[in-house]
Amino acid sequence: MPSVKVSTRLTFLFTISLLSLALSFPASAAQAGAGPACTLPGVTVFTDPAGDTADGLAAHDILSASIAEPAELTDQIVFTLKVADLSVLTPNTEWKLVFSIYDQRYINRVVAMNTFDPVRGAVFTYGHEECGISFCNVYIDGEADAGEYLPDGTIRITVARSKIGDMPVGQTFGSYRAVVQTFYNPSVATIADMDNHFGGTEYTVAGNEACRQVVAPPAAPSNLTAISPNNSGSKKSQVTLVWDDNADDEQVYHVERSTDAAGGFVEIGTAAADATTYQDQAVESRTTYFYRVRASNAGGYSGYSNTAAVTVK
């Protein structure tokens, strides 16, 4: 299918009518392999604060993005964009994840779900974005291989690697931009950003075949410590985590946090392989936090480090 060019100053409404492929998302199955990239939702590449949408709608509130390459697929990547709630699917809206493939300059790749067509409902697309000095042109290249959304706010878009830059195993991409946009008047492209997120952790393509191979999980990190300086004046409160890297085959470190030593830990971010530090800047003063860290690779997760506690002053 030839690319369909859509300027960010123009409407997507008329171009969407050119896309008419039927979609169905493959049912989740037990993975032949293990590891965060092998089981949906996959590796969390970024998280975004809750409750920061411009219009207060949970359907527009971005929470996180994850990437997976499940074993039952072939040369395909599953992008999961999580928002607070999708029990009510808002019309004339697009949920979009843009990312850069390193070594492919000046062209960003795009996967998206939109509700521009009231008859079809949710439509899942892939494309690319070319940016000039003043604005970017978005090209819808086709409909995704599969897509679904769930009432809990999960959006999953499956696309063959060959359709989004022909990414080989070992290719790294990142520099994410997640955007929820509402088209108030599609005929003249009146657009407003309801929520957005920039940045995140790089992802390296492992290939679905890697999930079918037996790989041992990495060794667990140890000696985790959490430090929060006495932040006075204009300094921003933060917590610095430091740990010992005991593995030589990890792909990423996962950082979890809770305000209860007994449980309630939630992953708040990741660090690259061989990392031994992480900074948590989303903390509040006069609050005690508990942290733990674990590593992962295609074989699964390591055990957790010790739990480290710190009180932000």
Alpha carbon gyration radius: 20 Å
pLDDT average, as an integer?
A: 84
Number of strands: 21
Rounded to the nearest angstrom, the distance between the terminal CA atoms is 57 Å
Order of helical and strand elements = EHEEEEEEEEEEEEEEEEEEEE
Task: Give the biggest sheet.
Answer: 8 strands, antiparallel
Helical content band: under 10%
General form: globular
- As a percent range, the share of strand residues is over 45%
* Number of distinct helices: 1
Low-pLDDT stretches are: 4-33
Structural class: mainly beta
Structure description:
The chain has one helix spanning 13-16; strands at residues 4-7, 43-47, 62-68, 76-83, 93-101, 107-117, 121-131, 136-143, 146-149, 154-160, 172-185, 190-198, 203-204, 222-227, 239-244, 252-258, 266-272, 277-280, 287-297, 300-301, 308-312. It has 313 residues and is mainly β. β3 and β4 form a beta hairpin. It starts with a strand and ends with a strand.
Short description:
With 313 residues, the protein is mostly beta strands.
Q: Which helices and strands, and how do they pair?
A:
Layout: E1 4-7, H1 13-16, E2 43-47, E3 62-68, E4 76-83, E5 93-101, E6 107-117, E7 121-131, E8 136-143, E9 146-149, E10 154-160, E11 172-185, E12 190-198, E13 203-204, E14 222-227, E15 239-244, E16 252-258, E17 266-272, E18 277-280, E19 287-297, E20 300-301, E21 308-312
Antiparallel strand pairs: 1-8, 2-3, 3-4, 4-10, 5-6, 5-11, 6-7, 7-8, 9-10, 11-12, 11-13, 14-15, 15-18, 16-17, 16-19, 19-20, 19-21
